[in-house]
Amino acid sequence: MTALATLHAAVDRHDRLARADDAFAALNARAGGRHGALLAIPQVAALARLSRRLRILVSRAVTIADGDRDLDCWVKAIPDESGVALTVSLLRERDAGHARVGAATLSEVTAPEDAEWTWEVNSELRVTRLSLDTAARLGLDPAAALGRPLSRLFVLESDGDGTMPLLDALTERRDFADQPARLHGGGPRMTLAAHVRLNAGGGFGGFVGGAYAAAPQPAAPQLRPLDHRLDTLLRGALARIIANADEISAAGDGPLDSHYADYAADIAGAGRHLLGLIDDLVDLEAIERDDFVTERAPVDLADVARRAAALLAPRAAEAGVTIDRSGCAGELVALGEFRRMLQVAVNLIANAVRYAPRDSAIVLALRREGMRALLTVADAGEGIAAVDQTRIFGKFERVDPGEPGGSGLGLYIARRLAEAMGGTLTVDSAPGEGARFTLALPAG
Amino acid sequence: MPAQPSQAIDSDLAARVAAQAATADSRARARLSAAIADVFADERDRLDERSRVAINRLAETTVAAIEHDIAGHAARLLEARGFPDAAALLAGNRAMTLPRLIESGLMRDAEVMGEMIAQARVDLIDEALAAQRAPGSTAALLAGLAESADGVVRGRALTYLVADSRRRLAHADRRAELPGALHERLAWWVAAALRERLGHGVPPEVDRALSEATQRSIAAHDDGERVEAAAVQLAAAIDPVAGALPQLMIDSLEEARTSLFVALLAHALAIEFAEARGLALDAESDRLWLALRALGIERHLLAQIGFVLCEADRARDVETLPESLERVATIAPETAARAVAPLTLHRDFRAAVRALARSPRA
Question: Model-level pTM greater than 0.90?
């Protein structure tokens, strides 16, 4: 890193600017100060005062606003007989308002995801951290690596283009991936990836890295299928689209050609469908993670069924279908997470509403069988052929592939949730005889 | 004939509405008293958001790790002994017990939480120390010690590096390193909470499995592996002469090894690590400066240590440091030593003195 410039100045015992080089004088003048007056750059003035009072050299990272530029600096204040001498090293300048590079230092820097094991080095590329269990497994002596240069741990190799991703990243203070390496003293080939850590001045402060088994396709840091920023972004946009389309469709701003109102209703409908799909994808991402867990609290499954039925009552009424809840009067305690149970129940009943013929009933039934609490949702639809009964629980599968709407994730997610709660989700059906979906959970 | 809305459902609904109203009412009262406590809390006693998050996270991961060990082992025992249902319930779940330990008030234990809070604060100070290092500066203290010609220092420096590396795992894997007695206390709490989650009428075999698994977790805990033990050992091995101590302390801080700083302080004052850490984390009083003064450390070195620490610890205000130093620097080391002398007393005696001081004489 080359310093852009170093500015020098000194203040007297009353914190007034006693001397300054041209660059500092100009910077101070642009902030409204002048020779002989108090320093006009507040952060530098504060440090000068502190140094005078502590009577020692003090230094810290400071950002100085200079017109429409922000200057990231490292300021040193050294007290002497006549006052305080100041050195301002410009580390970088950037447009005002742009996040300071060094801001990343205080937030947590984590190793790339899915690494087999992790390591960290400081600004001198000395190893400061190592996942110890792996070290033991690889026959590595952590004591031989910790505190030592990274080159004592890994032998870095150039990649296909003859470059060293780690070295490039070091110069440019950025993350890297796909750095081929071997363990020092032999061992299998591997690939390294790391996130950069910056110091207070925005300079290179080290890497937080991971090691991956070298595969034909080196495992670079992976993006999660739907990270929450994307989630928020999409939801926000869709919510606006739906709200505007609903507004148009309701003709709130005055009379509207009925075609346009219908288009708007279609747009809102499509928006809701996409929102539902995002919900499903977020769930999918969550349940497919290794560390996905559900709570296991005693929950009244009958209450869950009643609530789910109540939620879907309007949709059932629209479809001309009744939901028979007479089987959910009592209490049946199951172990699991209320929210997830409700999600499964809503999914099952919504499916039933979708496939039940007009004027038929969907019957909810509850019973306890040994150590299990069961909720059954039965419809009088066309039923599902035996060959399809496994398929419908697959990812992106539908009960009726020709039928529009739905993401094809509902039953897949419902079954995974049931399993996560220590239960099962099964179907019992034959063509022409409707379908019975049964959620079985550990009884409480 | 479609079923009529049964009376059972109605009365059930009424009971639930009443219960919900009662819960909401008591929640509202609890919220109000928390709000009142918050309004009148002394600004100096209040945690900043970052510390709160760090402490919560550490408590969460620590309890979850103990729970994982106990539930996992108990599940294996029960599986082998023919209780697959209880085994599945224990094996399939994680993070069940902390909410219960919080709700029951057990987590308010001053010793357990005091330890977690102290360790979380040390973590935050270490992070800040690493982040505020001057551009281009090098951190060579530990690297140097690890290559020391003195075999004892070299060995203990390496042990410390390994322990510190374990302590500084990524936040998701990091857990508090509790002293044995506190680990034991927490382990039994977790076992009790797990037992409760299994419902009424737990068969004796389940109790036995939980008990065996807990004893196993307690037995596996090794106080000597904790970073503070390694730091204490290293400080004792270095056994710095008085003249070398201040620079070693400054170097430890600049290298973001607060635990070594604390161990050096403890060694020099001949007090326990926890007491020295208490001094280092006490941002309110001049006790740390007094302790350093008791060691005969000169004002300019005191100022250097103070500046680095104040910059890294958000609980400290660097602007008040110069006045504190003025006050302390005029005190003779012998006088300052008297202020920290009680810390050198026997641990139980100290605890008794403090306990007595909490209830004023009639």
Answer: no
